[in-house]
Amino acid sequence: xxxxxxxxxxxxxxxxxxxxxxxxxxxxxxxxxxxxxxxxxxxxxxxxxxxxxxxxxxxxxxxxxxxxxxxxxxxxxxxxxxxxxxxxxxxxxxxxxxxxxxxxxxxxxxxxxxxxxxxxxxxxxxxxxxxxxxxxxxxxxxxxxxxxxxxxxxxxxxxxxxxxxxxxxxxxxxxxxxxxxxxxxxxxxxxxxxxxxxxxxxxxxxxxxxx
Length: 211
Hints:
By secondary structure, this protein is of the alpha+beta class. It has nine helices and five strands, in the order βββαββαααααααα.
C-alpha cells in the first residue's frame, strides 16, 4: 500500500496531478481546491495517498490529499451508502472550506447546516448524518493544519469561500455561484497562470460564467 508520494509535478489539471518520483510518473486524482493549492508544473509536492481498486480485476486509482485530516474525511465519506471514491472526493472539496463546521453539523444532526454551508442536497445531508454520526467523533480536525505540498500564502479554499460569499451578496444563487467558481478555477489552471488567485480574482473570473 502506498502511504504518500513526494515528487516533482510534471502535469496538472483541475482534477489530477502527475508526480514524478524515482523515475515513475504517478497520476493522482485530487479535489479541485487541492489542485489550486499545489505548486505549478515543475514544483515539488507531497500528497498522502488512498488507493481504490475497481471490481472484477480493474486497475487501481490513486487519490491524493494535502493533509492526513483530508484523507481521514475522504475515508469516512466512503462509508456513506452509495458513495464511491470519485463522489467522496467531490464531497471532500465542499467540506474543505470548514472541516470543523462539517464535524459539528454531523454531530448535532444539523442537516440544514450541511445544505446551506456546504451545498449538499437534503437527502445527501441526511444520509451523511445517519452514516457518520457514530464515527465523526474520532475525526481529528486539529490535523487540518498539517498541510503539505502547497505554496506558502496560496489562497486556495479560503479565497474560494470569500469569493462565494461575494457572489451570493451580489444576488447570485449559491449553487450557480459554486459552479461558476469551479469553472473559474479550471480556467485559471488551464491558462497556465498558476499564481495565487485571491478572492477578488476568483470573483472576476467567476462572473464571466454567470452572464
